[in-house]
Design a protein that fits this description.
- This protein is α/β, with parallel strands linked by helices.
- It contains eight helices and 25 strands.
- The strands form six sheets. Strands 23-22-21-20-19-18-25-24 form an eight-stranded parallel beta sheet. A four-stranded antiparallel beta sheet has the order 1-6-3-4, with no helix packed on it. The protein has a four-stranded antiparallel beta sheet with strand order 11-10-13-14, with no helix packed on it.
- A hairpin with a 2-residue loop joins strand 13 and strand 14.
- Helix 2 packs across helix 3 and helix 4 runs parallel beside helix 5.
- The longest helix has 18 residues.
- The radius of gyration is 24 Å and the shape is globular.
């Protein structure tokens, strides 16, 4: 049977799956392929330039052609795909870009799959995107350039030393000698530290330049004062700056009880205890799931702040990079997550998982808001593979050895910490004991708390009923109880993350009573 074909004009970001996963059918997500084409002109900037296409998100595979030059098929998904298109582009003329986006059924070589294709049918953690669901941009640079996400900056656990690694590549056909300059400025653009180094690169050669220096009395990034320095990284040829990027950075220290083992169950930021009042968010919405505009991301951020949360958890896969920029600027603590309970014991899965894991860390490691690396939610990864992935994270982010923790959540092993998800009052348990449970050494941080409800079903006020009807009122009672009891234990625990957000709280069970229904946490 021939597949249906039709043409439609769309704006990117775009997603064909408009959140089919919300009903949690055995296999309710949208699968297939879509070809995107775009014609555009580029002014000719002259010789000595390189051209790069950046796709912030294509689901799940992207086959890219520019002016009929095949640039390959790439497992992309939720990390940035960068392609050198210098040999295919036509400066000063019309260009035609063609992108085949594919999300086939029964994927077994990627960390991001829909619920119908996973081993837990229907439990998709939301639908997976089909399309170019995040922005695309063309970048024109000098042939000797700073690589994408090629600047890595961090401080030690005492906030006394600053480290910088800069990845530079020569895309030209001639050996080049350039000067690398790193200027570390405060928020008034006043220079605090200055690093410079001459380097010579052969054609196609990449070098990573490592620099460090003590930093005296830095202004520390915190939830109350999210102070951001700015690192200006430049490539110079003589007096001419040929490439430059700016990296915001916050100096801060963090400490988790699982790294201290001192009997203190609290989280510390800059030596002071901070109670994490966090929220989980699925990057979905009806009509265009995943394909968020910049304005929509900003609106989500405002919702989180208006609700009083000071911490945010990707639920449960990498979100749009705009999110972490806001968390850095607003002083929101960030638990970024890579994947959710999927494992396929194949060489292809292992290779793609680790390749995309490296991209994920590289894209996020500079953010002071990132205090936790979430390897997998409700992990099904074998211990040995999780340990291998944890070492990759520590290799790419030295602060994961001393400060940041690597987690699984509600199951899993092979990381620093398997964080619990305490849904007492929903999945059994006694919610009146929540403060005591949270303060136990095997808890201390609750990755999710929540409650069932049925939209617009209301009951008369009264005491909380453990086996009561799933009404709006019962849900509020349980959530308020969890918030109150966690606050009572705040002097001995790290905190908690609500399993609900403004985006997902509207998705009630299908039935107003305790009948078979569907729910997305």
């Amino acid at each position: 049977m021939e597949k249906e074909k039709y043409t439609q004009y769309v704006n990117v970001p775009h997603n064909w799956d408009d959140y089919y996963g919300y009903r949690q059918l055995t296999h309710g997500n949208l699968h297939g392929s879509a070809v995107y084409t775009k014609k555009f002109r580029v002014d000719d900037p002259g010789a000595g330039k390189s051209y790069f296409l950046h796709f912030d998100g294509v689901g799940t595979y992207a086959t890219v052609k520019l002016n009929r030059v095949d640039l390959g098929r790439h497992p992309a998904g939720r990390t940035v795909l960068t392609l050198d298109v210098s040999d295919a582009i036509r400066p000063g003329a019309e260009n035609e870009l063609e992108v085949l986006a594919e999300h086939p059924a029964m994927i077994a070589d990627m960390p991001w799959v829909c619920g119908g294709c996973s081993s837990e049918w229907g439990f998709s953690e939301g639908s997976q995107p089909l399309g170019i669901f995040r922005p695309v941009r063309l970048e024109i640079t000098d042939q000797v350039r700073i690589e994408p996400f090629g600047v890595h900056i961090w401080n030690d656990e005492n906030a006394s030393t600053l480290y910088i690694e800069t990845e530079v590549k020569n895309y030209g056909k001639e050996t080049e000698t350039v000067e690398l300059v790193n200027r570390f400025n405060n928020d008034l653009s006043i220079q605090v530290l200055w690093f410079t180094e001459k380097l010579t690169l052969a054609p196609g050669e990449t070098k990573v330049i490592r620099q460090s220096a003590p930093i005296t009395d830095p202004v520390l990034w915190s939830t109350e004062n999210p102070y951001l320095y700015k690192l200006a990284t430049m490539i110079k040829k003589g007096s001419l700056t040929t490439d430059e990027i700016t990296t915001p950075f916050g100096v801060r220290t963090i400490s988790w009880p699982v790294k201290r083992n001192d009997g203190d169950g609290r989280f510390y930021l800059n030596g002071e205890p901070v109670f994490l009042n966090g929220v989980c968010e699925y990057e979905h919405q009806f009509g265009q799931s995943h394909a968020f505009s910049a304005e929509q991301v900003k609106a989500r951020v405002k919702q989180m702040k208006a609700a009083g949360f000071n911490a945010f958890r990707d639920a449960h896969q990498p979100h749009h990079l705009d999110y972490q920029n806001y968390w850095d600027e607003e002083g929101i603590l960030f638990w970024t997550q890579f994947s959710a309970h999927v494992w396929y014991d194949t060489p292809e899965f292992r290779e793609n998982f680790k390749t995309l894991l490296r991209k994920w860390v590289k894209e996020r490691r500079n953010s002071p808001s990132v205090v936790m690396w979430g390897l997998q939610n409700e992990s099904t990864l074998p211990r040995a593979f999780a340990e291998e992935c944890s070492e990759i994270i520590r290799e790419m982010d030295p602060t994961a050895r001393t400060m940041r923790v690597i987690t699984t959540c509600n199951g899993g092993e092979g990381t620093d910490w398997n964080v619990v998800q305490n849904w007492s009052g929903t999945y059994g348990g006694d919610p009146t004991q929540y403060n005591r449970e949270l303060a136990r050494p095997d808890q201390l941080l609750n990755g999710e708390y929540g409650a069932w409800r049925s939209l617009d079903l209301h009951t008369e006020p009264g005491d909380f009923e453990q086996e009561g009807i799933w009404s709006e009122d019962r849900m509020c009672q349980l959530m308020e109880m969890k918030i109150r009891l966690a606050e009572e234990a705040r002097d001995s625990v790290c905190g908690q993350f609500s399993g609900y957000t403004a985006a997902t709280i509207i998705l009630g069970v299908a039935s107003p009573m305790k009948l078979t229904g569907s729910w997305i946490k």
